[in-house]
Amino acid sequence: xxxxxxxxxxxxxxxxxxxxxxxxxxxxxxxxxxxxxxxxxxxxxxxxxxxxxxxxxxxxxxxxxxxxxxxxxxxxxxxxxxxxxxxxxxxxxxxxxxxxxxxxxxxxxxxxxxxxxxxxxxxxxxxxxxxxxxxxxxxxxxxxxxxxxxxxxxxxxxxxxxxxxxxxxxxxxxxxxxxxxxxxxxxxxxxxxxxxxxxxxxxxxxxxxxxxxxxxxxxxxxxxxxxxxxxxxxxxxxxxxxxxxxxxxxxxxxxxxxxxxxxxxxxxxxxxxxxxxxxxxxxxxxxxxxxxxxxxxxxxxxxxxxxxxxxxxxxxxxxxxxxxxxxxxxxxxxxxxxxxxxxxxxxxxxxxxxxxxxxxxxxxxxxxxxxxxxxx
Length: 376
Fold this sequence. Notes:
- By secondary structure, the chain is of the alpha+beta class.
- It has helices at residues 5-26, 44-49, 53-58, 73-79, 159-168, 238-250, 255-262, 272-299, 308-333, 357-364; strands spanning 61-66, 86-92, 95-104, 108-116, 150-158, 176-184, 203-209.
- The chain has a 5-stranded antiparallel beta sheet. Strands 3-4 form a two-stranded antiparallel sheet.
- A hairpin with a 3-residue loop joins strand 3 and strand 4 (108-116).
- One of its GO terms (molecular function) is gamma-glutamylcyclotransferase activity.
């Protein structure tokens, strides 16, 4: 081959392409070791059945879209006891992932949720990996850096299991059950990039929808929920984010999306005052939280939904919980929603007795507190 500048440029370009492909395929990835067998892929016939409202109602199974901790076998199939018949990885352009469901200050500040998305305006930007600002004006913690729609898994489950899912997600107090268009991926290879606009044939799946209410707007009569003044402020805990990233790896979601999830920064306690605040806050409110979860497990109906009186009680308790945090705990003990720079010497800080509270609650109760049963 002639040693000309043009040929040298071509060789350099080819080398760079091969190098990038090699890095994509060979880079170390989190390997999820699961004791659960992977269900078969949801059949084309069942997916097409979902497109007909009449036929879907006659079906004996439900197609349920999961995107948060229900991606994780430990949560979905272990603690919640769901036995999916089949599953398929999907992209949902009309929704985007958010972390705006209030949880428990100092321990589980927020949980995963979804919001409506405009696929024409919410597109990847060149500065997607640079430091962006969120609505609060502070440096973001990388949760808003994905611009290709929601990525999740659609499980085919029985009617009984679907009712149990609703019960463990707050008894229907916080959500609307909606149908969304889900697009299967063209390839099962997770190294392939996620398309900006999917071209596969969509199908319908159920998901529990609890959007934030715009400022000044009235909350919906059905499916309303508690929300913080700045819905983008709180950070999810490291424990909760690990459930999502572990689930994404177990389900072999696209590596591109897994990278985004692994890059989200968790809430971290950085001061002794915050640790003390966590202890005092949970000492006061934990008995009421356990009471709500226990009552919900006992009184939910066959569809997994809580009675109206329990929804009102739940709303009152969680509103009081956050009001005491805003008015007393945050000014005295520090931020329980977002990581702040350390303001005292914490080299000798020891975990509080409540550090592993979520794990102990999940193992002792039939309901996970991923989505707190709060209503607007």
